[in-house]
Amino acid sequence: MKFGITGGIGSGKSFVCKRLQLRGIDVYDCDAAAKRLINTDADIRRKLTALIGPEAYMSVPNGSIVGTTPTVLNKAAVARFLLDSESNAKAIDDIVHPAVFRDFQESGIEWMESAIMYESGIYRLVDRVIVVTAPLEVRIQRVMKRDGITREKVLEWMQRQWPQDEVRRRADYEIINDGQADIDAQIDHLFNIILSSL
Questions:
Q1: Which residues does residue 6 pair with via DSSP β-bridges, in sequence order?
Q2: Is 11 exposed, middle or buried (0-12, 13-18, 19+ CB in 10 A)?
Q3: CA 175 remoteness from chain centre
Q4: CB under 8 Å, gap of 24 or more: what pairs does 169-173 form?
Q5: CA-wise closest residue to 113 among 10, 1, 194, 15
Q6: Between vectors from CA 123 to CA 117 and to CA 125, what angle results, nearest 5°?
Q7: Which residues contact 122 (CB under 8 A, 6 or more apart)?
Q8: How many CB atoms lie within 10 A of CB 86?
Q9: Contact 4, 128 (CB under 8 A)
């Protein structure tokens, strides 16, 4: 079986994934994979350059970054294009998401982490979805502290994601990460449920 772990910004899904990794479970990180593929996949590079223009990638000073070609994504240029319209953002997603989907399927990994599990459609590649949740104020404070940004900016980011209640409604299991509940005990309980269903 394949499992997907999701949760809104500040929910602590990456923390839960680290707890799983300590148990020997390999978790595919969709966000990290997208960043890697954008710089290394020739098809993505070609399509993004055709979509955005030659400024989509820029030369790397003093040689190249290990594992990439001598040019890397020009984040400023891509951000300008992306923020210009919803259709621009969708056009980028339509290039990057399928590549991440293929990469996950080819990885042989059974667990994945994705902040946009339902928005991207990648939930279709897993058998069960686990949502990590936390109270709104806890999430806001976590992101403010982690990223050094204002409350308003955190709320702006949250507005771009599906509401936590909607993701919870669709998911198969929930892990509460409010800073009080025992994460490992919940993971143990989750494993027991999964094993009993096999």
A1: 131
A2: buried
A3: 17
A4: 170/118, 170/123, 170/129, 171/6, 171/129, 171/130, 171/131, 172/128, 172/129, 172/130, 173/128, 173/129, 173/130, 173/131
A5: 15
A6: 135
A7: 4, 30, 97, 100, 101, 104, 112, 114, 116
A8: 9
A9: yes
Residue located via tokens 């799983």: 20
pLDDT per residue rounded down to tens, the chain (198 residues) = 999 999 999 999 999 999 999 999 999 999 999 999 999 999 999 999 999 999 999 987 655 555 555 788 999 999 899 888 889 999 999 999 999 999 999 999 999 999 999 999 999 999 999 999 999 999 999 999 999 999 999 998 898 899 999 999 999 999 999 999 999 999 999 999 988 887
54: Cα within 13 Å, side-chain hemisphere: 1
Q: Name the residue type at position 174.
A: E
The full length of the chain comes to 198
